[in-house]
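About this split. The held-out portion is used to measure sequence recovery: a designer receives only the structure tokens and must propose an amino acid at every position. Recovery is the fraction of positions where the proposal matches the reference. Here is one held-out target exactly as it appears in the evaluation file.
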């Protein structure tokens, strides 16, 4: 398994170096100057988090990078596709990048050597995934006891859903946000991010479009109707689409169909593929599909209402809802005027004078 490892070093820059200065941050006062971050994250949430750790107009630039997966994986290098993606470019600026095959013992040893003098390690794999590469917390803590180990997960590190993959829209569906967003009686709607929409326009002059729950550049990545409700399916790459077709929908012929074989083709043929998937998913109930999708390595979620959200097994296992007692009810206006003024040193006579003068009620 060939994984990308991005090392971030926020070295203190030369004061003589001229550059644009962001807000009040100077070239020498970045809060994490001199901190070494080892970044083993993918997709968007993890890379964005590590980008924030070093974000500075004088940070290290990304000098080179390579595809993070082995050639057998559908996400690997393809001569017919662009060498870079907007997702990668926007979340990995100011970083340096290397590629390692972490199945190789020598690569694991090299990683451990880098960890010895690192300050922070960040990963966003399914909990437990990195243990087989010797990159779990217990192993790295023994190598470097002062290391800060950060994990970004969809459902947290404990509970029955801990090992489920999760994207933002999956959590929106699972947590009830899609259920309460949209027209009454209409289809579920995901929440739009104004920051992303604004950036698209400022950078490329691209006007925003309405996509409902769909993704403009990934297919299938949206809510689909089932026999009795709705379900979110997010096949974020060609490998996940293959799993969906072979292991869930029983449509292996779609994997080799040139209209659907790669994501770019699926986006182009969205209006053909989405109805085909919808027809299959309508044949069973939401719960039937939940049971069939569970454990397949595919991000998915039913569209839960608020009651289902708070009674969700993962919410209960994680202790999301906690009842607390209010030790004091809210006061009547002026209920404690005399008490507080006495604590401040006022005598009863002085308090009465304040009341006569209209200073207090």
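Reference sequence for scoring:
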């Amino acid at each position: 398994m060939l994984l990308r490892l991005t090392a971030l070093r926020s070295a203190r820059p030369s004061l003589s170096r001229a550059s644009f200065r962001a807000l009040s941050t100077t070239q020498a006062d970045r809060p994490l100057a001199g901190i070494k971050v080892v970044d083993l994250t993918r997709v968007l949430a993890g890379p964005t988090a590590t980008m924030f750790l070093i974000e500075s107009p004088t940070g290290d630039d990304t000098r080179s990078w390579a595809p993070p997966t082995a050639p057998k994986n559908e996400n690997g290098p393809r001569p017919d596709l662009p060498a870079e993606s907007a997702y990668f470019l926007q979340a990995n600026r100011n970083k340096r990048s290397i590629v390692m095959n972490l199945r190789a013992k020598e690569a694991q040893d090299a990683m451990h050597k880098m960890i010895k003098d690192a300050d922070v390690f960040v990963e966003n794999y399914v909990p437990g995934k990195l243990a087989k590469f010797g990159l779990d917390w217990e192993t790295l803590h023994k190598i470097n006891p002062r290391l800060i180990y950060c994990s970004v997960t969809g459902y947290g590190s404990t509970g029955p859903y801990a090992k489920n993959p999760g994207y933002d829209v999956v959590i929106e569906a699972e947590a009830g946000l899609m259920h309460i967003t949209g027209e009454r009686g209409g289809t579920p709607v995901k929440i739009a991010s104004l920051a992303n929409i604004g950036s698209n326009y400022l950078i490329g002059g691209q006007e925003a479009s309405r996509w409902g729950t769909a993704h403009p550049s990934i297919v299938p990545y949206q809510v689909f109707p089932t026999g009795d409700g709705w379900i979110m399916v997010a096949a974020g790459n060609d490998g996940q689409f293959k799993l969906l077709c072979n292991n869930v929908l029983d449509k292996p012929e779609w994997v080799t169909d040139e209209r659907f074989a790669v994501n770019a083709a699926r986006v182009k043929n969205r209006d053909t593929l989405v109805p085909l998937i919808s027809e299959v998913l309508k044949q069973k109930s939401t719960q039937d599909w939940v049971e069939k999708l569970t454990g397949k390595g595919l991000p998915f979620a039913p569209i839960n209402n608020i009651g289902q959200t708070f009674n969700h097994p993962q919410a209960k296992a994680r202790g999301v809802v906690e009842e607390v007692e209010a030790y004091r009810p809210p006061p009547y206006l002026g209920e404690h005027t005399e008490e507080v003024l006495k604590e401040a040193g006022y005598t009863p006579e002085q308090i009465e004078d304040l009341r006569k003068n209209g200073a207090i009620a």
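Annotator remark: The CA atoms of residues 165 and 299 lie 5 Å apart.
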